[in-house]
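Entry 14: structure prediction run for Agmatinase, mitochondrial. Input pasted below.
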Amino acid sequence: GGDHTITYPILQAVAEKHGPVGLVHVDAHTDTGDRALGEKIYHGTPFRRCVEEGLLDCSRVVQIGIRGSSYDPDPYKYCQDQGFRVVLAEDCWRKSLVPLMGEVRKQMGDKPVYISFDIDGLDPAYAPGTGTPEIAGLTPAQALEIIRGCKGLNIVGCDLVEVAPMYDVSGNTALLGANLLFEMLCVLPGVKTM
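Run finished. Output tokens:
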């Protein structure tokens, strides 16, 4: 719940215990803007603040499903300059993400990893209940492939953000969000599944 601003203080606490962490970030947006409406802390800026504070191991950051609107003419430059791997949504269309997650597991290694999942990473056909929907996103099956592909990583925390139930009278966004959170709990270290 909440908007993506909540990930910033969570990662401050996580890094205090574990040092800089890897990040599997699913989103339509990079959330690395510098300012919005004159504010430095905003749901479009958390990962820039995390970089500035040394909370992330930038060589172990992957952003998946990125697409859509931006306030910057070159919206991926900052991320790429930091060493993030940016996987655009169009590079995910019509394919399984199992091979991608194999690469991500190698990139993350056995060091601490945090998962941050913005529901707008999914196409609004499946999850319209969010404040910043962007067309041509990931499918629920791909979301499961990403989360299940994190099994075996040294996951030290996770979140699912930007669900706004009032924008979806069907309740499907909340249902999808709850199921994705359940899946994240299932891939935490030490959790036994069938």
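Notes: Residues 59 and 80 are 10 Å apart (CA to CA). Will compare against the previous run tomorrow.
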